[in-house]
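User:
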Amino acid sequence: MILNLISRYRPYLISIILLIAILAGQSSALAQRCCGPNSLQHWKQQQANGSWTTSSPTIMQHHGESESSDDEDEKKEDDEDEEKEKWDVDNPPGPWEDIKINTDEGTWISLDVSPDGKEIVFDMLGDLYLLPIEGGNAKSLTSGISWDMQPKFSPDGKRVVFTSDRGGGDNVWIINHDGSDPEAVTDEDFHLLNSPAWTPDGQYIVARKHFTSRRSIGSGEMWLYHHSGGKGLQMTKKPNDQKDVGEPAFSPDGKYLYFSQDTTPGKVFEYNKDPNKQIYIIKRLDRENGDIEDYVTGPGGSIRPTPSPDGKSLAFVRRVRNTSVLFIKDIASGQEFPIYDKLERDMQETWAIHGVYPTFAWLPDSESIVFWAGGKIHRINLGSKQVSDIPFHIEDIRKVAKALRVPVEVAPDSFDVKILRWASVSPTGDTV
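Assistant: Predicted structure:
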């Protein structure tokens, strides 16, 4: 009978014995740590006499002092390690080499025109450049391994706001017109920001803040920041966790905020939607009463809202069959008409965290628009629809990490099998 019970409950008995052994080991270690290496025997004697308890003042006092000292040492070591391991985006470890670039073309260039109409600021390969409005040699405004993009002149033309990862992730930065004193406006480490734009008074900056949930594809909200920094003010609320919102721009009087939004049905993002129906629309937020209206809608969608300096027109991009076309909307009448049909393909079918098309800009007279397409910077006059190139030339250096090359034999005579899939045994059982 007893043997049957022992056999039946053998696993439980083994577990209990192991638990007792572990607790005994922990008690010995505690006595060593609390009372010193020479007091273990004394502790055992007290325990045998029944005079020791876990609330012993002497033991608890020494234990607390030891823990406090250990915690302080560990914290000091962690702080030192963190300081040593702090990542510098512009000075990462590893072998690097300088690559010379000499080009008069660029890909996916975002640009802006200075308030006096004399200069263009644009991004290319992660750096910012200044260019005379007539064209010529571009002057570097920023440089380094950090990725700088989406520049915008301040209303007084003295500073440029842009997106940069030089702090470790995409945030909003400001730099002087001469390239001095770059300063971070935002310091987000998770809900990263991009697509900055100034308020007309030059005091505040709106940017798109990125939010994700259970899927890496996320949505955006428009947040307003003072140029000196701060936590910001939420202007719009994301519609859900996956449908994109972005490309903010203020009206010249500051009353309205325009932005584009994926308004396709449902809450789940899907690739390769039909752009000839409607994916994106341009919405308009009234900053006085908080109302948001669907402002530019229709087949082909509408993206990259860009108000004219005189407030009479809104430039935007729309898909016409397989072509991305530059359109103008007359604010007063609501009439919309195309002016240029040779843009690069926009990104409406995909997910466009940094904007569905690169930024373009009006000249101060509201009669011409400067934009990028086909690798070049162009200028189009709205009245005549005449297009002229603004040539640029960049001669610069980029630091490039050497690629890690590991020889791989493509078709060896034999190889080790790592995993079997869809195994099927023959009827005879001797072959798989």
